[in-house]
Design a protein that fits this description.
The complex is a heterodimer. By secondary structure, chain A is an all-alpha fold. In chain A, 80% of the residues lie in helices and 0% in strands. The longest helix of chain A has 35 residues, at 2-36. Chain B is built from nine helices and nine strands. The N and C termini of chain B lie far apart (40 Å). Classes of the chains: A mainly alpha, B alpha/beta.
Chain lengths: 271, 232
């Protein structure tokens, strides 16, 4: 049954997701083409600026549309009139949630991959590739770690946040359903309220764990003692705070999943 | 044989308000039952509880001896009052959807009823009238070989001619051991098909009797009795 649920959840959004992400790829290819043939030398600066602004706009808006579509599907399919059908199918609330999570992650990864391609396509033109060694060396120097390590970390964080963010949107929508009226607005308010609380807690945890520099340096275990005297060292801080962030995200993800499941099992009340 | 629906001291509370209050009820098989009561009497709450769309505050509800869940949903075919079909979907997509999830769904029966009502399976729901959408929904529900059909206002949104077809569809598409629970305000239109009526008020059953008894012993129609019992 889970496979069937996922199939129908994916099917419900492909008509939006495919064209939307083709647009992202086209934008990446377009900018690559412009840079490749050095079109910017031949067209007015204003027009070139507009094209780049369009490219950035597409890269900014598409992830929002993806997230909005996922949230809308979750809300509409489970908590509006459609819920009278969805929630009376012979499947468990856990299967419903898993299906929404897996299909959501698939679309988020699709979005993630399209955006990476959209960035990679323009920067892999021969002109830039010729300078890549120098660019990477400079990045290694600034980051104080291999850029491969850095990008791997960013990739892992990206993957974990795909899952955790999807779950977080779902739990906020589910909490919104506990209100008798204005449930969408309640869900949005919940999103901002819980985000604020979590971000404050996160900052507090980072501070306590010693990831923020203070007058006395890094008080706890954030960096090796050898760095306390020699000055600021970015790499250990970045790596450790990334792992710390991942652990926090995993805890948040588990709590979001458990909360959503509880509401779906015990507190469903369709209008 | 276990009752198809059994409620034991069932209560559902919203805030301080009891939508169902210590309701006890047992429904057998092979009957068409009218669940009747004024607005706010608790009909929808009871129906939602049967379908697992709400959880009881107190008491128990059993469907064929099971608490509402995956197994009970396999044998209950539910037509809600609201249109639950998404407008952008085609009728044939919905048939595939039902066929995917319900082992007891008959595609042949569904296509047969669609063709009888001249509904194009390739049409998107948003292109159909509200009445036609309701017919599609009823066709989907009645194309299942269920043990319990729950029809919430099945004829509320359609014209009188279509009502006859719908009632006929209901009567000809269920097996003798199945129970049909119909909730409606249009008592006059359906009372001829009912075997039993349950009157519900303030979340409690005030009458659970056969239609024959009403007619024979009280010499009244269900519609007349309803108006007397629930006179404002």
């Amino acid at each position: 049954m889970l496979g069937k649920l996922i199939k129908h959840d994916l099917k419900a959004l492909y008509r939006l997701m495919i064209p939307l992400h083709l647009l992202v790829l086209l934008a990446g290819l377009g900018v690559r083409f412009i840079l490749n043939i050095r079109l910017y030398d031949k067209i007015p600066n204003a027009m070139f600026g507009l094209l780049i602004a369009g490219y950035i706009l597409i890269m900014t808006i598409v992830p929002f549309v993806t997230v909005f579509a996922l949230c809308w599907r979750f809300y509409k399919n489970l908590f509006t009139d459609e819920g009278y059908l969805t929630l009376t199918l012979p499947v468990t609330p856990n299967q419903h949630l898993l299906s929404k999570l897996i299909s959501g992650i698939i679309w988020m990864l699709f979005d993630y991959a399209a955006l990476i391609l959209c960035i990679v396509l323009p920067v892999t033109i021969p002109d830039i590739l010729a300078q890549s060694d120098q660019i990477l060396a400079e990045m290694d120097e600034v980051l104080e770690m291999s850029s491969v390590t850095f990008f791997t970390l960013m990739f892992v964080i990206g993957l974990v946040s795909c899952v955790v963010n999807t779950l977080f949107y779902y739990v906020c929508i589910a909490i919104g359903q506990l209100f008798s009226k204005h449930r969408v607005i309640a869900a949005v308010i919940m999103y901002f309220a819980i985000s604020t609380v979590l971000s404050t807690l996160n900052s507090a945890a980072l501070l306590i764990a010693g990831f923020f520099p203070s007058a006395g340096g890094f008080p706890f275990f954030a960096i090796g003692s050898e760095n306390l005297n020699t000055g600021y060292a970015a790499a250990p801080i970045i790596i450790k705070s990334c792992w710390f962030g991942i652990i926090c995200m995993v805890i948040q993800g588990i709590a979001s999943y458990a909360g959503t499941l509880y509401i779906m099992k015990k507190k469903i009340n369709l209008e | 044989m276990k009752p198809i629906i059994e409620c034991r001291s069932l209560s559902k509370k919203y805030g301080e308000f009891y939508a169902l209050n210590n309701l006890t009820l047992s429904l057998g098989r092979g009957e068409i039952v009218g669940l009747l009561g004024p607005n706010g009497s608790g009909k929808s709450t009871l129906i939602k509880l049967v379908n697992g769309l709400l959880t009881p505050t107190l008491g128990d509800i059993l469907i064929d001896g099971m608490r509402p869940g995956v197994e009970s949903k396999k044998i209950v075919s539910y037509l809600p009052e609201r249109t639950y079909l998404s407008g952008h979907r085609k009728v044939k997509d919905l048939i595939e959807y039902f066929d995917d999830f319900y082992d007891n769904f008959s595609k042949e029966r569904a296509y047969d009823m669609l063709s009888h009502l001249e509904i194009n399976p390739g049409a998107r729901l948003k292109t159909l009238s509200k009445g036609t959408c309701e017919k599609v929904q009823l066709i989907l529900v009645m194309s299942r070989e269920a043990d319990l059909y729950i029809l919430d206002e099945p004829i509320g949104g359609v014209d009188p001619a279509a009502r006859d077809y719908i009632l006929n569809t209901i009567l000809t598409n269920y097996n003798e051991n199945a129970t049909i629970l119909i909730s409606t305000h249009l008592i006059h239109d359906i009372e001829n098909v009912l075997d039993r009526v349950i009157f519900i008020r303030n979340g409690q059953v005030v009458m659970n009797t056969s239609v024959d008894d009403i007619r024979m012993e009280q010499g009244k129609s269900v519609d007349t009795l309803f108006r007397e019992v629930f006179r404002c």
